[in-house]
Structures are given as C-alpha cells and as structure tokens.
Write a structure and sequence with these properties.
The protein has two domains: about 140 residues, Aspartate Aminotransferase, domain 1 (Alpha-Beta Complex), CATH 3.90.1150.10; about 220 residues, Aspartate Aminotransferase, domain 2. A seven-stranded mixed sheet has the order 2-8-7-6-5-3-4, with helices on both faces. It is built from 14 helices and twelve strands. It has about 400 residues and is an alpha/beta fold. Bound molecules: pyridoxal-5'-phosphate. Pyridoxal-5'-phosphate binds next to helix 5.
C-alpha cells in the first residue's frame, strides 16, 4: 500500500550521527563520536536523593501547565536562567525542543533560517520538518565584523531568523568573542530578524567563563530580539529531557501554543526530579567537578593527537573539538580502519549543510568527555594508528 506522506517529513535528512550508533555497541569500542557525558560526569548521589522526593509529590503524577511547573520555573530562574524584562521563561523538553519551537514559531514553510557552517545536524532536521530552508554562514576567529554572516544575510532576502551557537559550539568547540557577538546582534538588528541562541554548553568552561550570552548583550543593541535556549542535559542529565527557553513575550506565547500542539506540557515527574535536585544545592559543586574532568580530558586528547600531527583548535570548554587530520592521512576507508582498531569519531562531512558535500572531509569531531580518563590516551593512539593507514 502506498501512503502519501507530507513531503517535508519524508524529506528530513537522515541524521548522519545516528547512523554511527550501532558501531558504539561493539565490545571494547572507545567512542569519541557521540556527545554523551561519561558515567562519572553525573551526580549519582544527588539524583538518587532527588528522585524519591519527586515521587512523593502529587504534581509529579498529574498534568501541569504547558509553560512548565511553576516551582521549577522559579528554581531555574534562581539557579540558571536570566529572564530580562519583557521576556518569559518556558520549560522545554531539552534545547532541541526549544530549537524546534523557535523555528516553527518564526519561519513559515519556504522561508529561510541562517545556520552556522559546519552545523549541528539536528537543526537541519528541525527546519526540514517544517519546510524551512537553511542557508549557511561561516565564522572564524579573525572575522570580528562577522563578514561571513553579513554576506549570507545579504544573499538571503527571505530570511526569518538566525540560529547561533556562539559558546563552545558543536561540532567546532569554538566560542565567539564579545566583539563578534555584538557584531552579530547589530547585523540582525539592522535586518530586523531575531536570533535563536542555542546555549547548552555555557556552564562547561575549563578555566575562564565564556563571554556574556547574546541574550545578556542584547540591551546594548537596540531593536534586536533573542530567543535563548538552555538545557539541563549537559549539566544534570540528558535523560530528564529538560531545558528552557527565554523569549520576548510576543514570541514566548506562540511558542507555548506550538508546544501544546505536540506534547501539551513538559514531563511532570522529570520536572519534579529537576526541582528537587536544584533544591539540594549540589549543582555548583557538581558542575565545577565536571569542568575539571572535561578540561583534563581535552588536554590529554589534544596533547596526544597534536604530537602526532593533528591540528587541534584551542577549545575553552564544552564537549567537542573539530580536529584536522594530519597531512598525508589516507582518508579513504579511515572510518572503517578506526572502527576495526576500536575507536570511533564523527566524520567532518556529517556537519556539512548538504548531504554528500565534501566540505570538512579532512575534519573529525571528537567528543572528549565520554571516555574514562584512562581510555583517552588509548583512543588517541588508536586514532593515530588508523590515520597512518
Ligand atoms: C548544539 C546543541 N543543541 C541542542 C542539543 C540538544 O540538547 P537537549 O538534550 O537539551 O535537547 C544538543 C545536544 O547534543 C546540541 O549539541
């Protein structure tokens, strides 16, 4: 039987990272591909204390407001989320739902959203699902005036929003400077388009905190609107599926309506677990410990790979580095050779805007947080051996 499908849904590009999952299950595999925190990066004791408290609360078991549990909204505002005047806070099912809601709310089918290149592939899925076109913009450290973004804006008359990942990016690990952030906001203000700021990695800095968020800088740039997305996934647990959005009132209301259309409200039990976890007062110490773990793992991985000729861009936080393979690497069959040696990476091509585009073919995204400390040098040595052919 042939069933006609919505062409937008049928046309969602396969997420190239999901295709790697089966390799990760092989015994002994050291996985540098997936963006998953290692087991020792969770506060197991804190979660075990929060869970029964959540279960004992009746609101954990019933329907709740679509904007989120009022007590969790209060706790998020106290611990994590800045909510400027004229803005509202919503609980989301992770930053991913925030991206989806913002895009659906701002861009009609056929219109364009600008996305950084290389791109976090799930943004492409969110746009494709609603028939929104994605147009890439490039940034590099020297591009203080955001010339790459200005050019993309000029070439895209029907752009409705800018998606930005300015802090410890995925896949690049890069962070925009304060100057670049202000330039980005100014360009969007001039063009009259809002910015969707995806910010799930902000808390994971190694040595110094990152520059202020676009949301925090927005008052310096009259006329710009920022929809800011945060997440509990990288600092408490991705399994909770909880994040938040801070959006101007005029956008937050419609985003809430859009979320009601798909799942009515955030998961009540998960919200209570998060609430009781935040009330334990353990988050700051936990995140400080995780920062130390991740910084040490990045240093160990980058040091070993750089010594073998990989180009390791400096990374100041987050979970990823977009490494460049050494000159002379035999790229043909490299992923298979790496898997045969028991190590996985995410191929650079997975982050190109168009499937099949050869851009970034000499890059690999390495997630340095998912392995135990002792496995990091082993994974690096396996990768070096695979790159040598
Ligand atoms: C850039 C970026 N945005 C959003 C997400 C989704 O995070 P969440 O688990 O909060 O939905 C991820 C997850 O890896 C990510 O890397």
């Amino acid at each position: 039987m042939s069933i006609a499908l919505n062409p937008f849904i049928a046309g969602i590009p396969a997420n190239p990272l999901r295709a790697l999952f089966p390799f990760a299950a092989r015994p002994g595999m050291l996985n540098l591909a997936s963006g998953h925190p290692s087991r020792d990066a969770y506060d197991h004791a804190g979660l075990a204390e929060a869970l029964p408290k959540a279960g004992a609360d009746f609101p954990a078991w019933t329907y709740g407001p679509s904007a989120g549990d009022p007590l969790l909204l209060e706790a998020l505002q106290e611990h994590l989320a800045e909510v400027p005047a004229g803005h509202r806070l919503l609980v989301t099912s992770g930053a991913q739902q925030g991206i989806d809601l913002a895009i659906r709310t701002l861009a009609p089918p056929g219109a364009a959203v600008l996305v950084p290149e290389p791109v976090y592939p799930a943004v492409l899925s969110a746009c494709a699902a609603v028939g929104v076109r994605t147009v890439g913009y490039r940034t590099d450290a020297a591009d203080t005036a955001m010339a790459g973004l200005a050019a993309a804006l000029a070439a895209t008359p029907d752009v409705r929003a800018l998606y930005a990942l300015p802090t410890f990016g995925n896949p690049t690990g890069e962070t925009l400077t304060r100057t670049q952030r202000l330039a980005m906001l100014a360009l969007c203000a001039q063009r009259g388009i809002p910015v969707i700021e995806d910010d799930p990695y902000r808390a994971l800095w190694f040595r110094v905190p990152p520059p202020p968020s676009l949301l925090a800088l927005a008052p310096k740039v009259p006329g710009v609107a920022v929809i800011h997305l945060g997440s509990l996934s990288k600092i408490i647990s991705p399994g909770l599926r909880l994040g938040w959005a801070v959006a101007p009132d005029a956008v937050a209301g419609p985003m809430q309506e859009a979320r009601q259309a798909s799942d009515l409200q955030p998961n009540s039990l998960a919200q209570r677990v998060a609430l009781h976890y935040l009330r334990l007062g353990r988050l700051d110490a936990h995140v400080a410990r995780v920062r130390g773990l991740y910084a040490a793992r990045y240093d160990a991985l980058a040091g070993r790979l750089a010594a073998a000729g990989f180009l390791m861009p400096p990374v100041d936080g987050g979970m990823f580095v977009f490494a460049r393979m050494p000159e002379g690497t035999v790229r043909d069959g490299l992923f298979d050779r790496a898997v045969a040696r028991g190590v996985m990476y995410a191929p650079g091509a997975a982050f190109a805007l168009q499937p099949g585009d050869a851009g970034f073919a000499d890059r690999m995204r390495l997630c340095f947080v998912g392995l135990a400390d002792a496995d990091v040098p082993v994974a690096a040595d396996r990768l070096v051996a695979a790159a040598r052919g």
